[in-house]
Every structure is written in structure tokens, then in C-alpha cells.
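Researcher: Please predict.
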Amino acid sequence: MSSFDFHGLTNVKIQGAGPLADYFQKLYSEFKTDEVSNSAVDFHCTVVDEIEYSPDATFGAPLDHFAQKGDDIYYRSGNTIIEFTDGMYDQIVCEKNSHPRIPQLLLEFKIRESMLEHDYIITHASSVVYKGETFVFPAWRHTGKTNTILSLLQDGAEGYLSDDRVFLSKKESIKAFPTPIHLLSYNLKSFPELSDFSSVDRYRNCINERINTIASSRDSILLRGLKLISNTHLAKTDWTPAAEMFNCEIVEKTNFDKLIFLETHPEEEVSIRKYPSKKAFHFLRAVNYQEWNSEIQDIIQVLELVSDSNSIQFSNVSKFVKKETELARELVENTDTYVLEIPEEEKWNKSLKSKLITKIQSI
């Protein structure tokens, strides 16, 4: 059993053993705390070998649906089955080999609720302290969040906050989400010195990159499936704490100085310019919808639909999203925003890293 305390606002308990439990222990290692009483737990996830699954009714496709048996509600996606105890999204049971996507989405929504009560919104971004200034790099997936902070950490950045998500307030305050840095094959290709993989692992990554390149250049269901299989089973990745790779410290909370949005461009050049606050707002809202809000809204609305218990209190997701959107607008209106245009991930090299650092230092 493991307990986690997120900024003194959300207590999470993961009970059980197996790959899913191991994943959460590694991902949230910086938040691990002494065991807390059940009455103080805000989110509880029990990991079991197998869920007995014999629902009375299902809603959806055979391998992708919600289901109900008594007061318990289930979600199934392929071989992943999640049980919502008494229909509550913050009390779940998962099989040990479940994919972490949905359990993590639910767990972090609970954290987001607590943070939003204190006017902090989640942002899909990486962040470091570099030469005394805190930089935040919001971006879409696979746009360069990790490569950007790796460049700055190699150049002596003294503080690490996150490589994937942070919490920001309109008062230019930032709370860290210091998960280990997730080094994917393209990160290791750009920063090979950070890898201790064997020659076989490197060869696997080379094959995976080739498959991704071919699949991305053609619109084919077969190739998209091949890309998914390759990324899941062939690519070798690593989760490494920043402090193990660089001479930096974890910064839990500070004020941020620069909000720099990342965009990829086909040219092998790096440029930076002011970014209109209206665009920055739409960027934050769209990314949050794509990364988290669309799926969490679907799940909780179905739970409200299926549950028969009037005593169950669900979060009003619409109000949550509305407040988050309002705070995002206020945040960018009170902050200088920039956009950093960088090449696609496979074009990163030593020269590009130097150009990137120079551009960031220029503002």
C-alpha cells in the first residue's frame, strides 16, 4: 500500500500490487508520504489480480463500454476493466495489468479539483528554473516539451518542476508536478548521452522510429495499427528522476517569469516572438480539452446516467471546466506570453539546442 500527498490538498491511496501499482509508485514518487487514515483519503485505488465481471447491463460496444451490476459501475476498454465502487469516480478497483490511462485521468482529476479550489489550473507544460528565472513551456503532445527542458538542464538549469504538467495561477504562481522525466525514443535520439540502454534496446528504438516515420507519411489504418503496436511493444523508454541526470533540485512552488508556448515547424530553425493573449488562451483551453476534459466529462456524465443512488454526489464538471476556463483567460491576460517555434523532434541536434537556448535568453 502506498500513500501520496499532493501539495497538502489531496491524499491518494494505492492499495495492492502489480504493474499498475508499480507505475503509480514510480510516477508519483516525489509525493509519497506516510500512510494516512482512510477518513483522510480523497482518492482510493485498489489494485487486484482480477475483477469478477458479470454485469447485469452494458452500455456501448462489446469491448468498449460501461456496465452495471447493483450499485457498482464498470468501465471496460479492451482488456482493461475498472470498477467504480458504489458508482463513485474517486473509489475505484483496477486489475493489476490495466492500462494506466483512465485510472490516472480519474486520480488527477481529483487533484485538479482540489487545486482549482485554490485558483490553480492544470497546464500541459514542462518547466525549469534557468539562470534565476522560471520558464513554463505549454505544448501539445510530442511538440518538444521534454527536449526543450533537457536542453536547459544540460546547460545548467538549477531547478526542475515538471516535464509534462504543472499547476498555474493568475497571480503568476506555479506548483510543480515533478514526475520522473519520461525519456521516449525520440528524446534519447536527440540526447543519446542520457541513455544507458543496451545496443539491442537502441536497435529496437531505431526500428520503432522507422515504423513511425513510414506510418506518419501515409494514411492507412493498417499502418496506424502497426505504429500503435510498435510504440507499445517495441519502443524502449525510461522514467528517470531529473536529479539523477542533472545537478538540479526539485522546486515545489515558486513564481513563474516566462510563459513560452511551443510550436513545431518543418524548417530547421528556431524563432521566438510575442504571442497574443487571445491565442494563448485558446491554446490552453484546447489542450486541456484534448488532454483531460473531454474524456473526464464523458466518464462522469455516464456515471451520473447509470447510477441509481440519489445520495451520490458527483462533481459538476461543467462548472469545473467553466471556472478553469475563466482562470486560464485571466492568467494569460496578466502574463507576457511568447511562442517558440522549433523543428520537429527528429531534427534536433547539438546546433539546434544552442540556438534554442540563445532564443530563450533573448527575451
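Model: The chain has a mean pLDDT of 88.
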